[in-house]
Amino acid sequence: MSSPKTPNVKLSMIPLFSADAIAERVRELASQIDKDYQGRELLMIAVLKGSFLFIADLVRAIKTPVVIDFVRLASYGSATQSSGIIEVRKDLEMSIKDKDVLVVEDIVDSGLTLESLRNMLLNRQPASLRICTLIDKQAQRVTDVPVDYIGFSMEDGFIVGYGLDLDERYRDLPDIRVVEGV
Ligand code: IMP
Ligand code: MG
């Protein structure tokens, strides 16, 4: 019987960032964030679904007091390419007015998702708004949306694992791999 973990089409995957390398980088980001937000409380926003593992590890490494909320965005397009049309599927439950907000993303690719989220959040008048992404993918960038904390940079290629999916699969992999032929 085929299961979601063994789809019929066999894709080839090449390891890119190991679980250890990710854990190490998360610790470094957390200590940078702690330095920058001393004495303040952070409102961290996870952009679902891709950032669920990243934010789970990040909040446990950060010593600054945090509150956490979630937003779910959907971008129309193919499985591997963003269209730039963003829909809010699930909005925040908390008010961000006068709060120090840190958005936690999985990947900034074209930057269109993040740009529209950033504009939406700025309209709600946070005290500050910064962005943290696990992966900064530069080849397809079409916006100059500012990213304050970057886990790893890469030029191009489609990756899965550690929260990142290909058509909802492979989010559960503990490391990040490049999918060949996408
Ligand atoms: P953007 O609007 O083009 O920046 O798209 C960003 C979103 O597309 C990310 O938050 C991911 O959900 C998804 N995405 C972009 N590249 C990849 C990838 O290589 N693997 C998995 N998801 C990706
Ligand atoms: Mg995403």
Question: Which secondary structure elements does this structure contain, and how are they paired or packed?
Answer:
Elements: E1 13-17, H1 19-36, E2 42-48, H2 52-61, E3 66-77, E4 82-90, E5 100-108, H3 112-122, E6 128-137, E7 149-154, E8 158-160, E9 176-179
Parallel strand pairs: 2-3, 2-5, 5-6, 6-7
Antiparallel strand pairs: 1-9, 3-4, 8-9
Helix pairs in contact: 1-2
Residues 47, 50, 106 line the site of magnesium ion.
Q: What are the bound molecules?
A: inosinic acid, magnesium ion
Specify the biggest β-sheet.
6 strands, mixed
CATH architecture: 3-Layer(aba) Sandwich
Q: What is the molecular shape? A: globular
Overall number of strands? 9
Rounded to an integer in angstroms, the radius of gyration calculated over CA atoms is: 16 Å
Mean of pLDDT = 92
Mind explaining what this structure looks like?
- This protein has 182 residues and is α/β, with parallel strands linked by helices.
- It has one domain (18-179): 3-Layer(aba) Sandwich (Rossmann fold), CATH 3.40.50.2020.
- The protein has helices at 19-36, 52-61, 112-122; strands at 13-17, 42-48, 66-77, 82-90, 100-108, 128-137, 149-154, 158-160, 176-179.
- The strands form two sheets. It has a six-stranded mixed β-sheet with strand order 4-3-2-5-6-7, with helices on both faces. The protein has a three-stranded antiparallel β-sheet with strand order 1-9-8.
- Strand 5, helix 3 (112-122) and strand 6 form a beta-alpha-beta unit.
- The longest helix has 18 residues, at 19-36.
- The structure holds inosinic acid and magnesium ion (MG).
- Inosinic acid is lined by residues 50, 75, 82, 105-114, 137, 158-160, 164-165.
